[in-house]
Amino acid sequence: MKIIVFGASGSIGRQVVGQAIEQGHDVTAFTRDASRVGGSNPNVRVVEGDVLDRAAVTSAIAGHDAVLVSLGAGRKGGLRAPGTKVIIDAMHATGVRRLICQSTLGAGDSRGNLDFFWKYLMFGALLRGAYADHQEQELHVRQSDLDWTIVRPGAFTDGDRTGHYRHGFAGDDRTTQLRISRADVADFMLRLLHEESYLRGTPALSY
Question: Are 108 and 101 in contact (CB under 8 A)?
Answer without folding.
Answer: no
